[in-house]
């Protein structure tokens, strides 16, 4: 039986990690934890999570603010023998500041838009 392939962005903490744990508990899945820094201790700790029978974990770099990370991730996954994604969960996002509208800078807003809007678009445009 072919495993179900799931890719989750922002998978090293919070909601993304919770979703990751749920899919790792399902048998016969390939679960891809995507985050901006696979070498971070929170990313490395994912290898210690329990997995169901026939389920494997892969950790890959996708920074939502990068114009090329999704492309590079798709190429790397293809090299690893993963040619498609069945379930794509775009969970990565940021919420860095909460100022009043009169106090927020355009740069702060742009950083949020780059990550929380354009990041999803880049991810979904990749031909997984």
UniProtKB/TrEMBL annotation:
**Gene3D superfamilies hit by this protein:** NAD(P)-binding Rossmann-like Domain
Question: Which SUPFAM superfamilies has this protein been placed in?
Answer: NAD(P)-binding Rossmann-fold domains
**Family annotation (InterPro entries):** Fungal_SecMetab_SDRs (IPR051468), NAD(P)-bd_dom_sf (IPR036291), SDR_fam (IPR002347)
Which residues does UniProt call coiled coil? Answer: none
GO terms for cellular component: cytoplasm
What are the recorded GO MF terms, alphabetically? oxidoreductase activity
Source domain of life: Eukaryota
Question: Per the similarity annotation, which family is this?
Answer: Belongs to the short-chain dehydrogenases/reductases (SDR) family.
What the entry lists under PANTHER family is as follows:
SHORT CHAIN DEHYDROGENASE_REDUCTASE FAMILY OXIDOREDUCTASE (JCVI), SHORT-CHAIN DEHYDROGENASE/REDUCTASE
Q: What is this protein called?
A: Uncharacterized protein
Q: Which organism is it from?
A: Aspergillus arachidicola
């Amino acid at each position: 039986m072919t495993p179900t392939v799931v890719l989750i962005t922002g998978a090293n903490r919070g909601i993304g990690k919770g979703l990751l744990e749920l899919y790792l508990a399902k048998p016969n899945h390939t679960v891809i934890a995507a985050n901006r820094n696979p070498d971070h201790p929170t990313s490395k700790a994912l290898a210690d999570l329990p997995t169901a029978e026939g389920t494997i974990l892969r950790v890959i770099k996708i920074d939502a603010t990068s114009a090329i990370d999704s492309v590079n991730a798709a190429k790397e996954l293809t090299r690893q023998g993963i040619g498609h994604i069945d379930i794509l969960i775009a969970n990565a996002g940021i919420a860095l500041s909460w100022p009043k509208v009169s106090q927020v800078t355009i740069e702060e807003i742009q950083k949020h838009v780059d990550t929380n809007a354009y990041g999803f678009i880049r991810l979904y445009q990749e031909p997984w």
